[in-house]
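During the no-cost extension, the postdoctoral fellow (Dr. R.K.) reprocessed legacy sequence entries with the updated structure-token encoder. One reprocessed record is reproduced below for audit purposes.
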Amino acid sequence: MTSALWFLAGLGVGLLALAITRLLAMRGRRETIAGIRALAAGEDPQAPSNAEHGEVFRAARAIADARRNDLRAAAEREALLRAAIDGTPSALVVFSEAGKISLANAAARELFFEDKDPQGEDFVALLGNAPDALRRALTGDGDELFSVDDASGERHTYILGKRRFTVGNESMVLVLVKNLSRELHRQETDAWKHMIRMFCHELNNSLAPVSSLIHSARLVVDGSPVAPKLERIFVTIAERTDHLRQFLDSYAQFARLPLPRKEDVAWRPFVDKLQALWPAVQVTGELPAEPGWFDAAQIEQVVINLLKNATESGGPADGVSLAITSLGARGVRLTVADRGPGMPAEVMEKALVPFFSTKDKGSGLGLTLCREIVEAHGGALRFENRPDGGLAVHVRLVHRSSTLPDAPDRRLTLTRS
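Re-encoded structure tokens follow.
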């Protein structure tokens, strides 16, 4: 009996120990499972006390850490890609074949959607508000050039590219639109400058020996009976030579315009200096509190040229005005306005072409030089006939910290407030 009792007692203790071991194992598994679930949720739980389960848990933690690092790196790459896309000056829109917009960068939001996020909207339906030129370009198979006239009559030329790609099982369309107007104008201006430099060089090469020959001829005929008559001829030739040289110098100024040296410019002293030169000009509105950021001498020359044109427009002298308006983040706008007859559409179209002038003695470079200076500052110049008579010339200049492009042509806006 004693042996049997001891056997039964030992068996009970063994079973109890087995039960306790299984219970501890189950608790360890539960701890491990709970810990892994916490890792998946992004938490940082303690490792199970059991050595075997702790090893499993540590392996799971390593996998979770690697996954978090991959997700962080993917998020950083996506943020970098979005920043690069948003920083692209070309308008970029991505939409499905059905027309649902999934992405529009900052330039596209400004050009097409009035700075609003169009995600989820129907791009194809919005094209009902687009000009015919844009719709025709979008229906083309490849890259297309199209032009649109803005409200002031200035023509803007764009290039539109369209590409198709697949994301998952969905077919997508990428549309990229870039304004080529400035690049085309730059190439045209560079061609004019090259021609002017060659023209001035060749003429100056001829003027130099003419001046020298006049001087030599005076020495040869000095004291002769016909000298007085010849002297009058020499004086006339010399005067016309000097006039031609001055004429060439004015054209050469356009061909060798220096880069602007921008600095902070307080508006009040700037305007006071202009009013001292043009006392009759009316300065309207409040001056911006924030200083301008430009080459004071160059912009002063621009405003002087515009004021001179305004006073010669044929309107009343007291009808010429100057206004300087803050545009917030977009910079500042200077407007010179008059009460003359305005500018006909055919003249407005050619007003900025070098050598074009409606004045009998005009060089045709005044307004061209103004635009060159303004665009060298990163700004823009445009004309506008005033509804109640007269012409307004608007000059937009950017701030020191501004990186925004020129105001888009609102005729490409697809949404309507």
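Residues 263-407 form a domain with the Heat Shock Protein 90 fold (CATH 3.30.565.10). The chain has four domains: 2-83, 88-179, 184-255, 263-407. The remaining legacy entries will be reprocessed before the final report is submitted.
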